[in-house]
Structures
1.
Amino acid sequence: MEDDAPVIYGLEFQIHIVDFDDENNIISKNVLLHQVGEIWHISTSPADKGVLATCYNKPSDSKVLTCAAVWRMPKELEPGGHESPDDSTSPAHTLELLCHLDNTAHGSMACVAWEPAGDGKKVISLADSHILLWDLQESSSQAVLASSASLEGKGQLKFTSGRWSPHHTGTQVATANDTTIRGWDTRSMSQIYCIENAHGQLVRDLDFNPNKQYYLASCGDDCKVKFWDTRNVAEPVKTLEQHSHWVWNVRYNHSHDQLVLTGSSDSRVILSNMVSISSEPFGHLVDDDDLSDQEERRPEGKSQEPPQDSVIATYEEHEDSVYAVDWSSADPWLFASLSYDGRLVINRVPRALKYHILL
Amino acid sequence: PASRLWAAVGAMAAAAAGPGTGSGPGDSPEGPEAEAPERRRKAHGMLKLYYGLSEGETAGRPPGSDPLDPTDLNGAHFDPEVYLDKLRRECPLAQLMDSETDMVRQIRALDSDMQTLVYENYNKFISATDTIRKMKNDFRKMEDEMDRLATNMAVITDFSARISATLQDRHERITKLAGVHALLRKLQFLFELPSRLTKCVELGAYGQAVRYQGRARAVLQQYQHLPSFRAIQDDCQVITARLAQQLRQRFREGGSGAPEQAECVELLLALGEPAEELCDEFLAHARGRLEAELQSLEAELGPSPPAPDVLEFTDLGGSGFVGGLCQVASAYQELFAAQGPAGAEKLAAFARELGGRYFALVERRLAQEQGSGDNSLLVRALDRFHRRLRAPGALLAAAGLAEAATEIVERVARERLGHHLQGLRAAFLGCLTDVRQALAAPRLAGKEGPGLAELLANVASSILSHIKASLAAVHLFTAKEVSFSNKPYFRGEFCSQGVREGLIVGFIRSMCQTAQSFCDSPGEKGGATPPALLLLLSRLCLDYETATISYILTLTDEQFLVQDQSPVTPVSTLCAEARETARRLLTHYVKVQGLVISQMLRKSVETRDWLSTLEPRNVRAVMKRVVEDTTAIDVQVGLLYEEGVRKAQSSDSSKRTFSVYSSSRQQGRYAPSYTPSAPMDTNLLSNIQKLFSERIDVFSPVEFNKVSVLTGIIKISLKTLLECVRLRTFGRFGLQQVQVDCHFLQLYLWRFVADEELVHLLLDEVVASAALRCPDPVPMEPSVVEVICERG
């Protein structure tokens, strides 16, 4: 994808593909029409960059039902395909429907998650209290319900969010409903762990540490971000309390998992440096070993400095609640955030920190 | 007598001369009364001069006159020629005439004085002459008699010499006979010795026996080569051995008490028994007795609860064990003083061991006392204990008993401090439980909320009285009359580190921690701690910060004059901690209450089907409930916290009507943009509006006043409403319902907050968001909205 960092976000009835040219600092966008309804969730296939799934509100007479479908975007708009983006003049493109994830029996879709590093054929969707595993067949033109599981308990249980773990060869999925986080095994569709009362209030989002297989981050309405070790769910490993309102999103950086991004309805985006629980050994052990072989042994103290978690930066560009944040998949130092008023902000990790991590 | 007589005569002469010499040309005109002392002094001066005393020369003379001046009429070196010459040369005729008449007058006066003196003393002169004559006669007679005495004495001496010469040889024989007699007596004593000893032993007069034996031993030793003496010695030894055995027997029986035992030991020592062995035996016996004492103490200690109180116990221990130990020690030191350091060391070890066991018992007893609340008894007991041990402590410095006792007292004092701290904590927790019950009870009865202020006052006063009681109880340890109060620990560390830091500061800290723990309780859903309790604790901490802490610490410092220099926690640090706690509690209160209202709003938004709702006729019940709850919270907070500052614009009492007016105006502001044709305009408008308004920090820290608290709660609630609304889709009537609800909230919530603009902003935002989430946004007429709200 070269220097470009495409970001896709949804607005009512439209999908914008935003290209950010890092070299020239130019942002360009393409608009895709999504005619079936307003989009509540969007996710792209890991295998085919032209394929994406959306959850959308289907306007019906007196009911709102959220459905999910898999789409293919026109070839020329695929990220990386360099077109002449004269978007202001060119008519909006239309998405090509591949298949619906039929949820008439299960209720509103809350989110769709693709199997990470898979071949783009397995999709999990969360519909009310059901977790559904779909098999996309015949180049995604047909979705077959492979297996499903559902929550049981009193009251109306509703999934709010779910993530597919990149570890364990894609057999684990984590979901959130109300204040509880659950882990599922996709092979048996059975629950493998459950964090009751993970947050004081509703859990809004989850993310897996891309490098440490048991680590999970969660955020919620209690303004906290918590980090969990799924092997021991009695206590969070770490808790952050930097936001002053609900935290809607939490994202690990894809390659440097000490960088954690959170977006909140206090209209702030916070980039934190969670050195103490990252996969990268603090103080660069490898380097130290090399150095100590070459030089005389240095006095220990310096490299033994305990890691300090810290807030790297608080981004206050948004005027209203921030509902989505994500890292660029192309450039690990780039991230975008989107707020209620439709403002998309693209930021870079501060240069000093970047060099500190790299060197 | 002669010399004394002469002195008297001399004095008389001087007295006679005095008046004459005293009146000279420099006579002062003041008269005889004034010059009397002067004259007397002069007379004394003359006398002294006569007797060669130098001081008279300076004392008796008027200042300024040269003693060697030959012209001084009264001087010793007066030369008439020089004087006359001087007069004649210096003075005019008239003055000469004057001085002549003056002189004549003085001479005449002197003459008459002399005459009177002689008359007056004439008789005395006569009698003196008579006396001297008589004395001459008497002396002559005495001389004769003395001569006779001398001759008589010579005769006596002669006779005496003759007598002693005749008695000489007889005297020598008598002396020899006396010597033989004494020797024979001694021999008789020796021969009688065995039988005497036996008798003594039979009679039990051991002391007498030992004395005899002592007297005879050396002689027997010396003459043991003579067979007869040898036999006596052997007999004696046998008897002595029997005696020693009997003594030992008596000693071992032990029942006869320490003084008698001491006597036995003394006798045995006199018999030349080995001291070391006796030492050991003595100590072993003493040990037996003291162990019996300890055992009886232990029995008192016993597992059965009705043990005697601690004072009685220490008394028992003090009189029984410590007294016994004292006796043993002093007897030992008296008896075995000759043993030197080794013996002393033995005694010290003995005392150390038994003392250790005694201390262990005392400690066990004291440990039983830990639970009780009464300090005075304990302190008195400790005092007795400590006082009692001072005697053996002084006697046996090496055994370190006094130190160990002090240590025990210190340890107990420390434990008491810990106990009191625990007690204070328990009292605090008890208060909290009471408050919880008080908070829970009236709610069941359905009455108005309990008097929070009253509860607060109760809690504060009860804690304060507990603290004071603890201080008073602990203060007993440092009372002047208590024997250990002047130990360095009690003068310094106990006061500063123990009482001030450990007890008071520790309690305040733990109070803060306990209070803070309510903030961190896992029951974030608000179930665990009643919000009113949070509020009350917050106020309590704040009160502590403002007044109580400094009061308590001052009280402490006054009661325990801290002489220790070790650093203590300053008042300011504690106050800061208390304030921080108060702030956290209040913030938590805001969160909890905000959450309660938020949940209500959220459920109301999430569970309703907004698309197919009917045209609004009423304000939804939830909103009324919200307003009611907010009012209740307002009342609750108002009980404990001051009003606080509002923005000036809303301090007006006629505000409500104005608010209605302004809110309707604001509705007018966004109303035109609801036409479906211009959805972007709304967006733009709200964006522009936001540009000029300040960012609202939802969970911002609160200040210590009612308005700030209420503002916090309302902010949280409305922000929740906003976010929930944004997640839903509204039909036309749904939007209108939101409009109505928001207007209603606006009508009633403005008066609780510091800045009503805030409520307006948030509610506008809610309505605007709802409008955005509505496919068919047709707003309701503001007037209709108002009517519905007024009716509701």
2.
Amino acid sequence: MPGKLKVKIVAGRHLPVMDRASDLTDAFVEVKFGNTTFKTDVCLKSLNPQWNSEWFKFEVDDEDLQDEPLQITVLDHDTYSANDAIGKVYIDIDPLLYSEAATVISGWFPIYDTIHGIRGEINVVVKVDLFNDLNRFRQSSCGVKFFCTTSIPKCYRAVIIHGFVEELVVNEDPEYQWIDRIRTPRASNEARQRLISLMSGELQRKIGLKVLEMRGNAVVGYLQCFDLEGESGLVVRAIGTACTLDKLSSPAAFLPACNSPSKEMKEIPFNEDPNPNTHSSGPSTPLKNQTYSFSPSKSYSRQSSSSDTDLSLTPKTGMGSGSAGKEGGPFKALLRQQTQSALEQREFPFFTLTAFPPGFLVHVGGVVSARSVKLLDRIHNPDEPETRDAWWAEIRQEIKSHAKALGCHAVVGYSESTSICEEVCILSASGTAAVLNPRFLQDGTVEGCLEQRLEENLPAGCGFCHIPYDELNMPFPAHLTHCYNCRKQKVPDVLFTTIDLPVDATVIGKGCLIQARLCRLKKKAQAEANATAISNLLPFMEYEVHTQLMNKLKLKGMNALFGLRIQISVGENMLMGLASATGVYLAALPTPGGIQIAGKTPNDGSYEQHISHMQKKINDTIAKNKELYEINPPEMSEEIIGSPIPEPRQRSRLLRSQSESSDEVAELDLSHGKKDAFVLEIDDTDAMEDVHSLLTDVPPPSGFYSCNTEIMPGINNWTSEIQMFTSVRVIRLSSLNLTNQALNKNFNDLCENLLKSLYFKLRSMIPCCLCHVNFTVSLPEDELIQVTVTAVAITFDKNQALQTAKTHAEKSLQRASTDNEELLQFPLELCSDSLPSHPFPPAKATSVDYSSFADRCSSWIELIKLKAQTIRRGSIKTTVTVEKASPVGEGNFRNRSSPPCANSTVGVVKMTPLSFIPGAKITKYLGIINMFFIRETTSLREEGGVSGFLHAFIAEVFAMVRAHVAALGGNAVVSYIMKQCVFMENPNKNQAQCLINVSGDAVVFVRESELEVVSTQQPTANCQPACAGGEVTT
Amino acid sequence: MTSELDIFVGNTTLIDEDVYRLWLDGYSVSDAVALRVRSGILEQTGATAAVLQSDTMDHYRTFHMLERLLHAPPKLLHQLIFQIPPSRQALLIERYYAFDEAFVREVLGKKLSKGTKKDLDDISTKTGITLKSCRRQFDNFKRVFKVVEEMRGSLVDNIQQHFLLSDRLARDYAAIVFFANNRFETGKKKLQYLSFGDFAFCAELMIQNWTLGAVGEAPTDPDSQVDDMDMDLDKEFLQDLKELKVLVADKDLLDLHKSLVCTALRGKLGVFSEMEANFKNLSRGLVNVAAKLTHTKDVRDLFVDLVEKFIEPCRSDHWPLNDVRLFLNQYSASVHSLDGFRFACSGCIT
């Protein structure tokens, strides 16, 4: 009997009129937990009843405390007939179960009814008395903290990052049970809400147990999802990263642990840079000691570290400029060996984190992803969800092997998703292959990590860009160059990742949101035929999405993508692909080449003219974008400046090679005989369409920036005004013009118009940035496309541009001249990047269930072939153009006056998808918010149609989230995410239904300005954890 | 490609003041879009008409949802669904309850009943205010009337407390409620030159001086007071006014009164001679108006009578405003010295 739950019902207000005769309500409340129910007295004839009940006490197992929600039902007493329900409140009491979070839940909760929405509010007080339980075989995991935030939470320090935890539970969906035929929609909705609440409680408890087994005390980056599989059941699954976290009691303790190293990280490379000898002096070992000696923590000398870390983390100091590959091999082997001990014992070395403590991330390989198409079948035994487990295990195995192929031992920024249509389900997983610092994975403590930092010889700001794989044994064709930052190691020409931009990365200019959008028609089919059709389409979609991303990236003049998220949704008769990422220009990577168009029929004069016109347009766009995003990489070399010839020469050479290659094309195409037709078709229409779509993307209006990462690269002077919003659009396609092209256009317009609308609506916040822009696309019905966007608009101060990074980056690039010639030898090719790896189609035997259809996208080889083909086809070619950058210098304001803060925050609950609140410090995490709501209506027209219905529902969901946070004593939700928004309508019947699932972390924050008043002595401004790179430094 | 559904929901509810005004003015979405296009917003922001349409629709939907709460402003403050900063809440309420001068002149003093509501389309055509806006304004009057009708205490305070209006707007509503309750006739052609502000000024003075709340300064037994303190005229006071008749009926008293006034005003009035000549008529007019007020019918015609019996004679003699004021002040002051009369000035009407 380890827990006592106490509940008090205080009062109600704004209740609906339940008795038409008197225009009043006789309300009473039922409080239910598990199988125990208490009732309050009936408060006669009042719309604002005062119950002031006694404390209702439930004595329960902590297992139940974790699983069960507290259920409060408000009813209208009726003497003669059955009592009418007014609505319900579900309260997740999990936040009360760990010591540091909330101690009491007390406040006004909206009373929610699945048919009528919010109907008044009720004031409730909830407390839990926990008894210590030392039972080793316990089933509960009270005390394990959960965070949705995908970085180490702000007021904690990571002692150990243990790794991946996952779990899933399945059940029958109440909506599809036989009883649903006879019960009311309300009863069915409530059964569903309750079941999902129970299941997520159970899931969280089971994950908690796994964490305890790993000796962790928290789950970070917790992502829980529902799969509404319809007839076949309901799956609730979750992934996360188990950690051992230490609460930072005072800012003083915090400083040495995390913050100052991060500061170093930023400054070290810059101080190192000005040494012009770095490159030419060849082996330059001694340099490192000198450069690091200035660091504030110099008391930690080199010698203090253990020898093995020395070995593993001293980069190839003796390595000359060209020998990276050879010497890199053995070194990397060593590093791998080292981390093996830490990672090998784990089944999946995955991390759901997207931002990391400094020094954690050593190298990044590239995006790895895997997809699999499955046929759903009824889950026969809910207690043994083996099939679903096996499916995911398979996919994870694939991801793991892809990471290995990239020379990486871990996957970071890992996430999983599904898309379901009828009985077909696409399972997707993606992440970023990476090499991690083993120190964090073992019992490395503060000292360890600090030493680590000091020993780290990898130049910060570019280290993560260096390739982790062997140059001579590359997993895919890529063009490597020497790092433009340190000149020592090799970097790829482009870098795609699913993580946030590391704080120490050196970026030039600003970033921007880059999206690839794609629709493909698919024949309607049943079961296996359908699954086959989808599997056949997937590799082409992936490839095209990828090509689009690459082209758009080049069009923006950038060379790296962060926060890449590719979503493929399946519908009855089409597939949709939507990829979002934030493009940036990494100083360490080479300047991206331009885009060159070449026609297929060079004889046709007008066509040629058209092509050259397009080419001009593209070049103009690139130039414009470079200006817009302030991408002014420093001049490559004096020689080039001196003689403007190289550029034209370069280009002409390429052009020549292009025209010459026509024979080659024919020859090579022959070797792929059956694919010839495909090539021609694309060349004629799709290629033009691609080019057009490239040019139709309009940049945001001036004063606006957008990105899908936590913070906008290049902006770091945020002010405190934030506005989180959700926008939903559904369009109906006219069935007449259903061609791929028309579809693409429609989809593209939909997304572009949506963005335009957002910019217009938020124009009063200019200058501002839309951060964490999260697009979700779904195909609810045959001709419907639904796009949901959640993002936060944050204002920033234009005049406080803090551009230190930029200037430093410039400096560092100043000496990037010597390799320039070399660079120019590489005509950058369209797809030569660290592309998402694609699985080999596994034998059917791997699929446990016979009826399930496991066909994988495509194999590596196939994909590479495909790529090669397009390049040979010559529809779009990229070339290196050496841009003459105008020196940046003006506008580098160092003015750092403290930002203006919002005056009153009384009663306001902020919501943000970010892990931080600009201009404020999070002082306490109160627990995870994970809520699931269903809303249904049978009077759609009366509620303002579909828009009115959904608008009201989303507003209500926000209200309920805010109310729960306020009741926990919090004033904000961070890492807020709307994971699901399933909308179904039946206008003929005047009905609609919507399911929404949201989650986030409830927190208490204090404005920095207020904080300073409280403790002027403490260096509060420095308390910002490293991961909050975007926070305003006061 | 048609948009089936298009919504935007912010954690903080976005309120566009311009769109709010258009909505309050009763424009349809398409009219509002057209007006916004004309305002040049597209050029300023580089947006397209489709964006504007979607934005306007969205705001209209939000306002529509807020309207229910605006009917009882304290609800807007306590509701949880829309997170709106207090300053914006105040703006929403103030603008929602604001009314058009032209409209209020049409309904001032009329019974706020269904019958009047039916005439709103006539008022709409006459004033050029959209019917929708007329309905909102009329419903606002009626709602405020219904809520404060049965309440005791200061009318302005009650309105302020239940509708969270600014002091100025609450006073205006007090006047509207007061006029509607007493059904003063304000629509006659003779009264057309008077603005709402003029009537509101009178209403304020009458509430201060003529009502139960004002007269029964020390309500000894508040529970027995069934009448509304500020809304109804004090019947006893009206009864007492009858006694003023002696001022004109008794020849001696009339002369004495006249001489007192004349002595005091000699040299001060530009129209002294006219005043002296007309004193008897004016005094009779005033006293008769006052004495008749025991009849409900005559109460309703108070302003018509005052204009006919007092203001028009003065105007025909071209009395300057200041002289009228001086005369009336002296007129009532002299009465006090005459006898134990108490007389509350009927106010200064321009």
